[in-house]
Protein 1
Amino acid sequence: MNFEFSDEQNLLREQAAGFLADKCPPGAVRAVLEGDASFDAELFKGIADMGWTAATIPEKHGGLGLSYLELCVIAEELGRVVAPVPFSSSVYLATEALLLAGSDAQRQAWLPKLATGAAIGTFALTESAGQASPDRLATSCDNGSLTGSKLPVADGDTADFAVVVAKCDSGDGASLCLVPLQADGVKRTAVATLDPTRSHARIDFDHAAAEPLGADGEGWELTRRILDRAAVLFAWEQVGGANAALEQAKEYAMGRYAFGRPIAGFQAIKHKLANMFVKNTLARSNCYYGAWALSTDASELPLAAATARVSAIQAYYFASKENIQTHGGMGFTWEFDCQFHYRRAKLLSVNIGSERTWQDRLISAVEAGQAA
Amino acid sequence: MDFSDTPEEAAFRQEARAWLTANVPSMEDLEGLDEVQRAKLWQMRKYEDGWACIRWPREYGGRGASAMEQVIWNQEESSFRTPASVFAIGQGMAAPTMMAWATEEQKRRYLPPLASGEHVWCQLFSEPAGGSDLAALRTRAEKDGDEWVVNGQKIWTSGAHFSDYAILVVRTDPEVPKHKGLTYFFVDMKSPGIETKPIRQISGESNFNEVYFTDVRIPDDHRLGAVGQGWQVAITTLMNERLAIGGGGGLGFRQVFELAQRLTIDGRPAIEDRSVRARLADWYAQESGLRFAGYRAMSALSRGEIPGPENSIGKYVGASKTQDMASFAIDLLEMSGVVSDPELSSHSGIFQYAFMGAPGLRIAGGTDEIMLNILAERVLGMPQDVRVDKGIPFSQVPTGAS
Ligand SMILES: Cc1cc2nc3c(=O)[nH]c(=O)nc-3n(C[C@H](O)[C@H](O)[C@H](O)COP(=O)(O)OP(=O)(O)OC[C@H]3O[C@@H](n4cnc5c(N)ncnc54)[C@H](O)[C@@H]3O)c2cc1C
Ligand SMILES: Cc1cc2nc3c(=O)[nH]c(=O)nc-3n(C[C@H](O)[C@H](O)[C@H](O)COP(=O)(O)OP(=O)(O)OC[C@H]3O[C@@H](n4cnc5c(N)ncnc54)[C@H](O)[C@@H]3O)c2cc1C
């Protein structure tokens, strides 16, 4: 057993942190928050040039064929800087869907482009308010023709293709299909969300050309597997963000004076930050386990992913709101950067299913383990 | 104890409800008006028929009603959809301070336009270096004849951009310990030398401001309390602030409850989920506890007591409750919970809006941490932290800058 990242992986972390400090300072996040661009295109190009979009794609499809541990390291660093790029949609979701269920032709068509960042992919599941389930899907795909609406789809306004979860009368009630988005019968409308640093869209499909991804009637099971894998990567982003929020809170508390002394000296503030540290450490420790399970495709993955996800949601949300609180009035201003984490934390706490949904998956996985 | 109305109270309730039914502004009444205009229209309508600030004496624009009648009025008014108030600071904080500290002539002059909504007031207390540590504020006032000349900067002043008057605390003597060198004034916001600059909050809106003072002249007769007594006067304001801002935040139990009835979890109504029920029950109990605590505070007021520090509970519980409920509602909505566009999102985006506003509730009017300190120190009587700023001249208190 070995519970640490390797020297090479730590070196990658240093490189990633250095690159992002340079290319993704808070001003870059703010530019997307305040501007019209859907994402920071220059940053995304830089990320692709660093090979991060290619990390887990096999070499025969133009990727680097690295392990998932490397991708976890990258995810944590991207989360730390609240990167305004479509990385997660393209890499954790669309790439994973192709690796898991794509035909040779589909992989050959899209993976090399995903690897270089020439194409952006996304995953379109949600249609309406509340928990997604096969019987709540209205989008349907008949003979290569997709009709229905998806809202909200992360990066749906800029992605080149989407993996769409559609209803199916057989099997588990859903099928996946692959849909190019710059095509007839696809209408995309950007929508305002809590986190404008990550763009979202409503996509209306009206007899859009689509091809099946994986077998008909296996879409729900595939979705579960994709989300398990993505959950670990999102959890690393969340842990990165949570630690950045803690650092921000600490830095401010050390310099802010009230009652003749730094507020960092008040026990109420010390305990608040210590509690952030506790939550972050528990989440990060669970993320290690998730990273291992993901990288080895271990049978424990569903449990490890749900555990990492639940604790990372809790840690990031707590750190993001208490970071504002530590800043007092300043934290509530548009000008300060505390809002980046508050917004991103909430987005990441529901984007692939809420805390409650993952708590449920966690206990189901424990029960399954007991039965086995 | 009796939680039901006496016959007189029931009659009063009837009368209030009938008046409200006939007079609450309709959509057409409000069309084309901004937030402030809407609030003023509603306030003036109440004033004209004797339903504004009903507990105030008639000579100050009120109705001379009892505290219980105030409770009944609040219950009835809140069951209607009325324009949001912009008068909480003026009517809830400035007015009680004026009643306690101003001259009779000033009360008769300044209180009726507050009741009618003609004048909006704001609170010029907080400063960049004096928030939780309000008594560390630095804005200077120096005496010049029978006027004071004020220089400095206030921050976070809600509504300053549409206010006519303000309550103001300034430093008149930096060479004595911090609480002893403060003096309290009210000031005309149109005085030369006052400059207001909006601050954007995290939601993107601008409801509060920086307010700069450059040689602003304030007549000495606008002083409330003695020179050097400003902290004591400010405490009157802050105690009333507890009652004025309470725990609200635009989001209540009812809205989250209704959302849970509409959504599903695992194919069943979310409201049937045990964990959802448990959370909702907690919030219901909190809201109910706060409501009844508020009534009991009104009973105390009716006995002539001033609002006590125990009222910090309302603000402390209410703010976090709003944040937790908003977050929970977004979770119930799952992925679609991030959509904030009012056209596309459930309940016109109120949960997302409340989520972005809630962090401010936990800070405005005294932070969570300060509320807990008040409860521990002023209610429970526990000792203060060891303090480095006590008993030394304000000018010698350590600051981050030095
Ligand atoms: C939406 C909004 C509206 C406002 N409106 C007004 C207004 O109209 N008029 C006005 O005058 N002010 C207003 N304020 C200002 C408000 O009263 C102050 O922001 C608040 O008192 C906190 O002060 P601060 O921002 O300087 O934070 P700080 O005092 O710097 O606090 C920073 C952190 O330190 C903590 N802290 C400080 N001292 C202690 C201690 N002794 N023990 C433990 N923890 C401590 C705080 O709890 C906080 O977490 C408003 C603020 C907001 C957010
Ligand atoms: C935005 C804001 C809202 C506040 N709201 C309240 C509130 O609702 N209730 C409240 O009690 N305090 C309130 N306070 C004040 C708070 O209790 C602390 O006094 C203050 O935050 C920091 O204390 P200090 O060290 O400056 O003064 P302290 O050392 O706490 O007190 C200084 C002096 O003021 C006197 N004093 C303090 N409070 C009272 C009081 N309630 N009645 C009579 N004398 C008093 C003390 O006896 C002492 O002589 C509020 C402060 C802020 C910034």
Protein 2
Amino acid sequence: MPRPEIIKWLRTQFFPHMWCPGCGHGIILHALLRALTDLEKKPEETVIASGIGCSSRMPGYINACTVHSTHGRSLAFATGIKLAKPELTVIDVMGDGDCSAIGGNHFIHACRRNIDITAIVMNNNIYGMTGGQASPTTPEGARATTAPYGVIDPSFDLCKLAEGAGATFVARSVVSNPKQCEKYIVDGIKHKGFSVVEIISTCHTQFGRRNKFRSPIDNINRVKDLSVSQAKAKDMTPEELKGKYVTGLFVNVEAPEYTDQYFSLVDKVKGE
Amino acid sequence: MSKKIFVSGDEAVAEAVRLAKPHVISAYPITPQTVAVERISDFVEDGTLKAEYLHVESEHSAMSAAMGAAAVGARTFTATSSQGLLYMSEVLPYVSGARFPIVMMNANRTLATPWALLSDHRDSLSQLDSGWIQVYCEDAQETLDMILQAYRISEDPRVMAPMMVNLDGFVLTHTYEMVELPAQAEVDAFLPAYTTINRMDLDDPKTVCYAAMNDYMEFHMKQELDMRKVPSVIEEVDRLYGDKFGRYYDGMVEQYLCDDAEVVLVTLGSVTGTARVVVDAMRKEGHKVGLVKLRYMRPFPREEILDIASRVRAIGVLDKDISVGYEGIVFTNVNSTVADLETSPGRINFIGGLGGRNISKENTRGMFNELLELARGEKKEKIQFVNARCEYHG
Ligand SMILES: Cc1ncc(C[n+]2csc(CCOP(=O)(O)OP(=O)(O)O)c2C)c(N)n1
Ligand code: SF4
């Protein structure tokens, strides 16, 4: 049972939630709320944006300033919000489809700009909401409704993508390690700049069922078994790392933040 | 031999696509279109449909990829719904302007915000001006038949225009009915292999989508003049299809008990089924009511609507959409046609079904009663909301 100060962050009037019982996204919701509580954030100063997907239903249940935007575009909404009111804490929650398929363009550009937004990518390796079609992160060989004999497209490593595009904080955790999820969310929010926290989530309904992992627990065990810490991964060969989820903090660097740069440019142009 | 199968509307679409043998399918999933594209990808993977299936990353890419394939002379298919159709919209006039006969299924679903899943016609009607032929289906059988007809119509050298086959989300996409599945050999005879000169060709290099600048105007005049001839092709294909498969749909418009009707209701899509039942019941009670099933929105059945309007005392138009700030989009189209008459019948625009709100038999009977009273000279509000939960008068 969540602590009372966490329950305060929930819009319990919208319960029961729409997620399947045992969906990994709930673990991420709880980790995010613990992070917000740890950081003593106030709902009226916290914005949570999302696109469309099971993951993106999350802000609807959070008692803060929330927006459920169009599929793939939540980072564009979040960027507008942050630029208009840089003092707000802006968090963006996305699914893997939202982030890396239809919204891939916004994702790389938000990384490039280093705007102070924390992007939480809830990667369950599938399009959950629309019924289990392959996403750009569905592992090769895994089955999906649009790939009944297994996916042949190579999948994205979202952390590498974020790093390559210029994000200044990049970390990955798995739902089987909720404490680590919470820590990376806390650190990501504290970091000034664009933070990407990828959390490997589970979808037993649409991914697991088609890939011999039927129950929620099977799926949580799957991601647990496939996760490897960064330290351990160092000594493993690329073959050994194939299909594994390497967890850890990959990037944490200081760089000029976009809204700071923007407003100092405005001051300069105005001659102040 | 044809056979009977028990399928949903989405599955009927997939079966039709399999029979039509497109070379390339590209699609991005969106509820309630998903089952159709999943079935098609099953067919491609198990080899029953020899085609390339492109798993693209958005609807914009889906339509762009279909256009690329069409540009080298491939028969193509794509499918979408709602927000997905809007996201494609930039590419729709590209395709129609380039005269590529892409066939697309659109599962009619409302638009955000607020978010909703169920069916109305706001998505497709917002794209009326995109240069695509638009047909609306009443049931799964008609949808299957129209996918097959769509290829025949749009690939006709006199037409060369893309076609959007609309079916109501959930009401048709997700409900099951018995559907007659034509035999492959008969479909092959009805739908010959696609050949066109409008394609990129290594032996005769040319460019597509070039910048027309000074010829732009004439380009679109030609497109419009060709589109005016499309109704006769539609009628022709409807007859041909009926002769072959036994199902005729009356081309542009189906008139149900309109011959001696005093008042008629114009409908689009699956709600026509409800209206038929109501017309039957009211006829038994002696009311001279009729039903106009508008099958095509583009090209618009001007002739047929004029003919009907010249015979009746009142026309009701049921719009499952609204052009906020004016009236229902179908109503505007019917009205501008009726304006050509010297004396026009009374007209009421019924706005209903937004976001999937039910339109019941009672609601439909209510609409006919309003029309009968209008025909008797009573004053009626011109735009009426059907089955709304709040007051809306002035
Ligand atoms: C423009 C547009 N295209 C398609 C959709 C349909 N759609 C809704 S959610 C979704 C994918 C969701 O997958 P993901 O982002 O991975 O989130 P999950 O549901 O798995 O949490 C899709 C394709 C949409 N809403 N809008
Ligand atoms: S479909 Fe998958 S992602 Fe969506 S709520 Fe169910 S388990 Fe979660």
Protein 3
Amino acid sequence: MIATVTELREIAARVTDPEIPVLTIADLGILRNVELEDDTVVVTITPTYSGCPAMDAITEDLGTVFKASGFGKVRVNLVLSPAWSTDWMSDSGKAKLEAYGIAPPTGTGHRGPVTLGLGVKCPQCHSLNTKELSRFGSTSCKSMYQCKDCLEPFDYFKVLS
Amino acid sequence: MSTHDIDHSLDSFGDSTASATRVTPGNALRPEDIAIAQAKPSEQVAEYALRLGDDALILAQRLSHWISRGPEIEEDIALGNIALDQLGHARSFLSYAAKVWDKTEDDLAYWREEEDFRSLHIVEQPNGDFGVTIARQLIISIYQHLLYTALLESSDPTIAAISAKAVKEVDYHRDHAIAWTLRLGLGTEESARRMRHALDVLWPYVGEMFEDEELHATLGDVAVAPSTLRAAWDQEFSAVLADAELALPTIPFAMARGRRGEHSEHLGFILAEMQVLARKHPGASW
């Protein structure tokens, strides 16, 4: 089966994050490369967090999606460098997150002497009047917030710079 | 960088040789995955990676005990997440170290004896009350942040890559520890008393963190001599304590030789619990 790299990339980009099914691995920015080596599809991905358990499922899903498209041989490379940051997330990915009810990461994090908390917008009523309940949430990549206007609690995909 | 084959992984699902730590056969990080350099590490680099990995592994094991025991549900989740990050760092470092002995991360985690572990005494100290755990987190997270930042310049590309990943996560651990130190130090009379007690309990184990070994000199640019982190650590740690209106303990440091495999009585109990399943049912997976 002959396919262009673009086509292969489109197939790989169908795989979604098992924890946040509205985001594909391309939206998330963890899909680094797709290429054909002889008859083997080689996909390179990177973890968001070191201990992220979703990598297992993503690797398995990549195998499944390529098999369904007629590619029997798939290899998945995992690279650590350059390390992932929320800057790798696409703008459309951020929009999908917000529509799903998770506030997307804002700004590019804190790399100065002072930790600067940027306003986090409520994905329900879009108010900026929100407060952090906990820096750590249901997965490594999220923290917990609550909107002080509509009172809805929500997840915030926290910035990793 | 090398790779693994999905067909092979799927075939090994349910196989008795599959790893006990993997729920699915895709595998997170295997030795070959994280090896950016094609070559195995040298014996000395592996020894160094073992130290970094063991500190993270034992700390992860200790912190995991807070799951279902946190003072509030947010803290349950926070400490569980921090433990997961530490476990991720441990897996990367241990997988890398294991290559040199043709072993896996699981061999190193489950099948080594107490005297083979190279972790610091501070990470094996009991969790105590929440204050003790927070004090330990403050001590360790400031240390690891400085260490991994310095290791970004390591001449070993794999150590540098794991550190680059780890430092971003430890940044959050440090924020968490600082926020709680302030809250407890400036909180009630009781919370401040507990923090003072926690610092006294842990202070004796701070000295060991900064002791240089021959290994560091041998490794040159690969490693960071711990003594070089001391001044920055002192400054950062003292500043947090000052903000929290807590005094720096004046207790002398204890003799601790975790790096030589001489551990406190606590490590044996930690390992007994951590290793029992893998040893009772070798090769078990689910």
Protein 4
Amino acid sequence: MAYRLIGNDFTPPDIEAKVTGSAKYAEDFRADGMVHVKVFGSPMPHAKVKSIDADEAMKIPGFVALLLPDEVKQPDVTGFPILTSEPKYHGQPIVAVAAETEQAAADTVAALKVDLEMLPFVVDPLDSLRQGGANALEGGNVSGRGVDFQELKWTGKDFAAAAENELPRGAAPIEWSFGDIDAGFAEAAVIVEDSFVHATNSHHAMEPRSAAAFWENGKCHVWGSTQSTSFAQPGLARMIGIELKDLVFVAEYCGGGFGGKATSYPLMALPALMSKKLGGRPCHLRVSRFEEYANGMARSGFQGWTRLGFASDGRITAADIFVVQDLGPTTGFPDFNNVGNAFSVVFQPPNMRFRAVPVLTNTVPKGPQRGPGENQTANMFEPLIDKAARELGIDRIAMREVNAPGNGGVGAKIGAKQGPLTSAFLKEALTQGAETFGWAERSANSGMRKGPKARGYGVASAYHSAGSSGFDGLVRITPDGTLHVHTGVGNLGTYSYGSTSRVAAEVLGYDWDHVVIERGGTARHIPFNLGQFGSNTSFTMARTNYVAAMDAKAKLLEIAASSHGGDPDDYDISDERIVRKSDMGVVMTFAEAAQMAVDMGDKYAGHVLPDDIHEMTRTSAMAIAGTGLVGVAKDTLPKDGTAPALTASFVEVDVDVETGSVEILDFLTVSDCGIVNHPTGLAAQSRGGAVMGFGLALTERHIYDPAYGIPNAASFYHGKPLSYLDVPLNTQWGAVNQPDPQNPMGIRGVGEPLQGSASAALLCAISDALGGHLFNRIPVVTDMIVNAAAGQPQSHKPLATNTV
Amino acid sequence: MDASGPYDPTLDYPEGPAIAEIAGGGDIKPWRPLHVTRRNFLRGVVCSGIVIGGSSYLFSAATPARADARGVERMMSLTVNGKTRHVDVAPNETLGYTVRYRLGLTGTKIGCNQAECGACTVMADGRTIYSCSTLTHRMRGKDIVTVEGIAAADGTLHPVQQAFIDELAPQCGFCTPGQVVAGVALLNANPNPTEEEARVAMSGNLCRCGAYEHYLRGVMKAAREV
Ligand code: FES
Ligand code: FES
């Protein structure tokens, strides 16, 4: 079916404000009588507060208030507190202060005397697993989603059993398997066995997580920076200690999140709690770059080991995977689950065992970062696929094609339970990409030398789950004929709040100029939507907007039938009018129907609502009831299996073996993301994801000083995101553009894999330039390249984290 | 493990932060607006630093505090976007702070406050500067242009702004004001840059969303039009 809107570009309504500077981010909030909030962050990686002496601090001119840890809600031991008296990482907020000016707030913080007792700390997960190794938290060192908080120490024998560069493998709280790995290895022609390290890295969102808040008439107003306007609210309300209905939330813009602002987070609640203490006075928290670095979450690192078996045609026969996740000091994010799932999707092994140990460390709290677990998987495993291809003498594209899920996902499976995928065309993406990139001709230049420069080529794939169901849609046609699409999707910069809103317009046959998107906060009466994360928005909210628009359509036809007789089935819609099917005669315009809906009231105007919608949607629908024809519904469309986002990337590099510098000459990513809804949006994400991926492969990492537990790479400069000068700026992108059968419009999103396949392809290209040298460590920094090229040993210890 | 497929993202991302449930709370007391004197209000100046306070205990060099801003403010006149404004400015106050917090021009963004990112880029006498790392008092007599001063008075967008929209260059948009100012300053100085010249001219502006190619296309497109 040909669409009018889907598949075509549009100008997102918020973009002009971005180029003129009128877009308001959380830190742009100002109010009369506003006080400035600052926090005292822990100078130690793990400590207990013995006393807080604020005598001098309270004498600072302009001082207004202190907020102490016992004045705010406290989570369980592995939770992420707003303020704490047992800081578990350097920079963790202990006390918040409010003052009339920002300077006075800083002076107050400086005058606080916080007496701390240092506690044992650990920054390398393997150190914590040793007998006698420190625990990051009192009472334990292992936690994670679905894993009980516990102390886990491996035996000396566990450590001794590992060879010099091999990951020791003791008890693991996570273990699952399918098939028969012994049989799989027995039939393998080639077995690859390696250990590897993936660094943690900062999200580096350009906007720090500033926030502001005030209370008025019993309602708490918060300006926050989040990827998810609806989905962030329940957690924020809980942290503040209020009912959802008492939260007025404004989040029109988000200056970058990449998972780090996926939902709400403790600092977002802080101004609201300070304001509560001050009887509602407006409070403004400006978060500095260092505070963002310390509290803004990070991607989890891994230490891992694997054994992979391959048949002579390149097909994987067995995979045995063991990973240790650096969880940070809280429950963190279940990246570990995603490693097993991602590997199982991208390579479809018939036999697999997966083990994981999420280990707590006294480092920056970890949260989801673009492809959390999945993108580390690509980086850790794709170079090993190349190693097997070399040993088998198989082309690296063919090696991946033979394993990739394709042909619509027939027979493709995911994870421990080997559940189905909604559809998959990764194999086709590889084939299409190789063709577009000219892989066969270009890769003949592998290893070509020009002075100190060696040419290399890489290909890699990545996956992320890409869709959910069960959320709500809310649309409204006002008596002026305008369609209002209410959306709780955030404004991360993907413009999927807009592209998914176009689904409602498409269903109702609207001219895009007659559509208004209502977004950015509770005042716009938004439905409960899933957040803008996890590559899911396109799939999930295409469905919610579809069901809401279908509800509106049904109501339009019912209104026609009630006023002009006959059955709703006798009518159809066309050009924003209701027509009689028999002769296509116009019965009434949408504007007239909307006025009739207002007059009829009941469900037509939103006075009577479905039972199954979320509390947030109900509140919003009630607020707009009576203002037009209201379409509202929960997405109960069938969904069986996991919707995957899949990508294949191709990279060409020159590696300077004397300086270690890597020049990325060209890259291409081809996506399997269903029907492409917003082509330029996909282009922008394909390129932007790659830029971020190249940084992940080359420069970005956290480094903690093992002696003091202090971050040594706490700035852009030290964990450098790439710049205009580091990436090629004339690149192509592509998509297989095959519909996903479980989305009414065939749409599926893609966000995270665009980073993972690009970074992994770059790692493979560097290895290729160096004749297949495997680093098994991410990022590959310049001195690693120089050492490898010169045949010198690397300066880091095997499996060590926090290396420079 | 239940979470090991087939699953959907809501399993990974529960409502709210991925933290254990938080318990406990407090009451709300009524608030009357406190009297804020003009003098107190104007004392708000640039400062940052999270661990300043604890630094005397251990690990004292963890975070360098910004220079003390408690100097006496002095009135100065500042020309911003063609208008002369009189403002009280502290001795070590940065231009980024002055435009954002005293003049209400929040289009200029502070991404790092330490000359690393370019989000705070403005023009001074036509040259781009990092306003986060420029003292306001040194801007006496200079012609400052922020992102708010780029479009025409009637709201017509500058070709660079329009081209950024056409190329869907902004993603999150936080670096965009800096990219706009850098692009405009480039074309003012060099209306026909090569791609390489444009790339170098823009290279002081980081974009974490990685939209460089789209911004560069925008600059080149605008160059064809100005
Ligand atoms: S805010 Fe000025 S360079 Fe980053
Ligand atoms: S658009 Fe987000 S940082 Fe540039």
